[in-house]
Amino acid sequence: MGAAVQDGRIRKPAAVKQVRKAEMGFAEALRLRDAGEAGEAARAMARATAHWTRATWIEFLEDDVIGVEQPPAYRPTQEDSD
After folding, report:
1. What is the pTM assigned to this prediction?
2. Please, are residues 11 and 57 in contact by the beta-carbon 8 Å criterion?
3. Is residue 15 within 8 Å of 58, Cβ to Cβ?
């Protein structure tokens, strides 16, 4: 994921922010899995994938394909409930 930012494939600041959150979430999921916490790892993975979905929506779909912001009900993140 970070390679997509480093390579310039993901450039929009809001998308980069979501990629970073996804990276942290995936790292947390792996840590939890390695600690034998399969249920918590699965929940962390779900949160991480929501951030990745948000990043790709912002970078590739929002302006060029769909033309609207991602609906909050579609793969919501913690930010959506604040």
Report:
1. 0.79
2. no
3. yes
